[in-house]
Automatic annotation (TrEMBL), chain A:
<keyword id="KW-0812">Transmembrane</keyword>
<keyword id="KW-0472">Membrane</keyword>
<protein>
    <submittedName>
        <fullName>Uncharacterized protein</fullName>
    </submittedName>
</protein>
<feature type="transmembrane region" description="Helical">
    <location>
        <begin position="80"/>
        <end position="100"/>
    </location>
</feature>
<feature type="transmembrane region" description="Helical">
    <location>
        <begin position="45"/>
        <end position="68"/>
    </location>
</feature>
<keyword id="KW-1133">Transmembrane helix</keyword>
<feature type="transmembrane region" description="Helical">
    <location>
        <begin position="12"/>
        <end position="33"/>
    </location>
</feature>
Automatic annotation (TrEMBL), chain B:
<protein>
    <submittedName>
        <fullName>Uncharacterized protein</fullName>
    </submittedName>
</protein>
Amino acid sequence: MDAEHARDLILMAASPPFVGVWALVLYAGRTLASDVRRPGRGWMTLVFGVVLFAWFGVFLALATPLVLEAVTAEGAVEPVFVILAFTWLAVVGVLVFLAAKTKTVCRYLVESYRRGQGPWPVAWMRRWVGR
Amino acid sequence: MGGLAPEERKRLEEVVAARIGARSGGAAALTAAYLDAVERNAYARTVGPGPVPTSLTSERAELLFEICSRLERVVEDFEIQALFRVTETQARSMRKMLLATHTDEANRLDHAWSLVGARRAGRRKGAKVTGEVIVFDDEDRRNAFTAFAARTGVQVERVLGEGDRPWQVIVADDYPADRLPE
């Protein structure tokens, strides 16, 4: 097991908050909580969510083998692998949260356009959310 | 044919413009509609097949109807005041009489009137309706619009806006897009 690799992965999972992602989370939260429907804000929230989902998805793909290896290993495990395992769990939670919010964002976008208007993905979303 | 001399017509326009003051953007159109309506009203009264108005109120309602038809909207109370030299209360009741006696055509004109000065303010999700927000100039216009929507089965929800024009509604998407204000 490569401890250096584990440290890099933890850094990868922890880096979004350091690059101002909290501001975007706040922006997305305010957008979805508001009654006002603005297409620009909806698309921004969707793009932000997709980027975040992709980032953590890559983390999950890279970290899962190492986490499985650490969990199934016999004997004492280095603390860095314990931290990685908990980070992995937290990231799974974030991904589930993001996936659960997809429909809300799509509904926001659908409501931002009149029926029959908007770019083609909106028509697809409209069928999905049933509006 | 007689008719007004150009200087008389100009004088009439000036008087109407002065009476409606800062709102005098449409004084020329209003005067033209008024003169046309008077002529048309005189012809219809004498030659038309319908019943003849026998009271001053119904006579005025007929004349107002002709004016509205030419303007393609219901005349404003202040315009009625300027043309007929009546009080604000009388003007209001004349407009109501017009709407009551010419219901079908007046509905269309009333709808056009309700949207005068209105503007769109994006989309919004309300408690019952999601759609375009329309901001109205005053409460009467907002009420006229919601009455029109109720008659035509379009869903609307009144919302209280902020600032000096709080009269707003959210109108559902089954309201025709080409009728929405700018």
